Protein 1
Amino acid sequence: MPHSRPQSVVVIGAGVTGLSTAFHLVEKGVERVVVVDKGSVGGGSSLQAGGIITMLMPTETEVRARSISLDLFERFSRILDGYHFHQVGCLNLATEKIFAGAAPLRDMWRRLGGRFEVLRGGEISERFPDLAAYESDIGVLDLRSGYSEPHRYIPALRNKLEDMGVEIREREAVVGFDLHNGRVKGVVTDSGAIETDSAVCAVNAWTNHVLSLAGFRTPYKNFVHERFVTQPFPEPPRLPAVNDHILNGYVRPTDDNRLLLGTSVDNLGSYEMHGPDFDVSELDPHPEALPFLKENLVRRAPMLEGAGWDYHTVGLISLAYDVKPVIGPVPGVDGLYVGAHFHSGGFAYNPVSGLLLAEHVVDGGTRINSELYSPARFGNVDTEAFLAAPIMHDEMGVVRH
């Protein structure tokens, strides 16, 4: 059956995935794009994000996708007023054992255009004086990567969308879909119905509260994630973005001379929302998160010793059953698409996840082989049993950015 180009699309969710999707839909010629959110723009976990990106991922699909994200972050730096992609590199730290087992990955990264260097022990501190390393530590420095400041990126992208004619509706909750013969004809909100040819669900941790309105659910779990930001240092910290797989955390500089740190501390259990009205402001900080970071990451960044702590935020990360993102058409409902469950890498994915979603909607397929992300892949999974079962974070695996 030939794919029909939509004239109007409703994007549900005004986080980075939804905003990126809206951008690409307009660029691909969709005449009317409406973004609706039950809260405010970026008010889910997008503004809580660490903002780190690396393209050194475990599968070919993910590497190709992240490479496109980097292309787009570079482009957004040129076209979004007030936003800059900080291409300081991303250092992925690992033990000798992990590094040795990843030789095939390094071959794949090179084949797909990855540019990286391997640093060992003291070479890490020589390159980045504010990082400490043991002789047994090995770092793979992804040279193209780095970080974004979510609080600058999100308003810049919103302003661009409004200039492009996108209608953004805040504090308007989706309560249903208008379906005819298994096809989306409208999105129903608490303010009324919006006629549309297609709809994209981009609400991440809230996904099943929206998709269940159309009779579909994905198998995923949410986990509490915290990030901490120091007070400014007198001089810019001399380090890149760091994914530390040895000490279980991450650290990066900020654009105002601070350090931002994060962890998924103490192998927390999954977090169950009480309902669609849940807000991240209801999340409680874990009492051991900051002590854990102080004890562990001060060994990586000694300048943290005695540092003042300015603020800290609590959000949710969302992991699908197989810990891969979910991007594509919803099975059994024509004209409905979903982009969600990006582990802790939702910000890193957002430029390309929005592009892939727009390609699904407008073209009926994507420029890269994205079957890995297909929502239809869970056909043999007992979704309801998975959703009902308690699970610990470590059981699903920790994936950084």
Note: The chain has eleven helices and 20 strands.
Protein 2
Amino acid sequence: MARTRIDILLVERGLAPTRQKAQAMLLAGAVLVDDRPVDKPGTLVSSEAAVRVRGNPIPYVSRGGLKLEHALDRFGIDPTGLRVLDAGISTGGFADCLLQRGAAHIYGVDVGKAQVAWEIRQNPAVTLFEGTNVREFDVARLGDPVDLVVADLSFISLTLVLPVLHAALRPDGIALPMVKPQFEVGREHIGRKGVVRDETLRLAAVDKVVRASLECGFAHLGTTPSPVPGPEGNIEYFLHLRRAATSASPAVGGERGEPTCPRRTSS
């Protein structure tokens, strides 16, 4: 009997528009195969299996939309009419959430290519800078400073990109970067499957990024844990930051535009 990857089968049967959305549905625990939950996209199942999806758990192209939805609501931020920099756009979950809430334009930066979901990619309100390292992004390419910055980055400490996020914002602009402790605490503190289980270490990672943000000219207005964990179960945190109205950008100082706030290295 033929067997097919469950993420592919979901698309073939019209239960998900794309494999990316199918994978997000699986990771959210919304897929049942023969009435048993399946949460791994690579699981092989019979092509004749009974497959169903519980409810509509993810109204966005990825689970990232659910994460940002929580942060926007928790901090009372309405993106209607705002120009937004999405640092680490990936599939486009954050962008999808912002567009559904009325954002005027999204500028998506990502080191990867061809990852953004089609419905986000073809939206005229989205401009993509693919194959671009956020740390090296020239904010002049945005034209004018943006009103809001969101960030979901992997394999790099947020402390290294804060100068760019700061430089991209208008005075009094808001930043919502997501802290991923596994990329802040150092390898010696990372457990099985890259999960940071010690709450003390997770909170220390958040504090590290908050302190770096203050040094770069942000005001820290709040922190909230994401209700949706990372793929392996890591707990992640959103920071609510505001660029001071009178602060000069630390990301445009120096002869070559190098950041002038304290240099940091990944732990």
Note: The two ends are 49 Å apart (CA to CA).
Protein 3
Amino acid sequence: MLGLPGSISVLGGVPITAQTLGVMLAGAVLGARLGALALAVLLALVAVGLPLLSGGTGGLGVFLGPSAGYLAGWVLGAAAVGCIVHLGGRRPTAVRTAVAMLVGGIAVVYAVGIPVQSLVTRLPLAQTAYTSLVFLPGDLLKAAIATAIVMTLVRGYPRAFRRASGWTTAPRDVAGSTAP
């Protein structure tokens, strides 16, 4: 999802990619720790030049441009999605998953991305935030799609979500050893 080459132009030619959908799914399916780690590894591969971002871009230059903050926001966003979806180690619910997509997949990514974009473009923060609103309808649609995908996966593969919760990959007993 993150490296799909194409985009769909809507709302006056603004390209909408599947990248934030991938961020949302990484956190929800892999959990907070592994979702964030997966995005960090992806960004490390991009930094060394692999063309893994939408449109086949890669290299250190992408971390110096207006989208640099959004890329950093992906890691934090995936972690936030994973934390909310798997809150308290419980099975994901549709409401909690939808909230996770909105908070982690959109709000966190925007909260990191917009200030960096404002800094790089030397535009006022309010103006940058206002112009970023054009992406919100597409991101809301992706949040709905991600929620539907996750809930379908939870119903079809409920055991897969047992170990995705929180920042641990396996429960520990009182003595600290990993449980079977």
Note: The chain has six helices and two strands.
Protein 4
Amino acid sequence: MARRKAACELLVNDYTRKGYVDGLALRLPTICVRPGKPNRAASSFVSAIIREPLQGETTICPVSESLRLWISSPATVIHNLSLAATLPAPGEASSINLPGISVTVGEMLETLRQAGGQAARNRVTHQRDEGVEKIVASWPGRIDNQRALALGFVADKRFDDIIERFRQDDMEGRS
């Protein structure tokens, strides 16, 4: 998958540079808290360790609590994708890392405890999956936001805001 993404990004950059297209390749942070159900993606646990416990379900955390992640909420990513469609041609550098926030899995779980109580936190059990951890640990846990922010893209402010947004907009069974 990474090779395909890199090849597509190179094509967008090259074709934009040559003037064939007005292109912009966006690199997205891991999206959290994604609504729906867990899937087989290595990143699926990032949303699951928040989404499932808040909805009364148990889930497994397959990585160390010290693992650092680069994340953004679905609403912020949607906003930034919409903004990207309105930007003028970027010129030579037509790849942009969309802004996000950097958190450890442990910080996420502590924020879950604060938002949903100890019962929610207790619904997350740890079962290391070396394959998942190896993949996710290879992703950047922190990225410089300056260029993207200067272009008008936005970042979530705090992880607890991301959880609250999920609870308001996407949580199943909300009233």
Note: Residues 105-122 form the longest helix (18 residues).
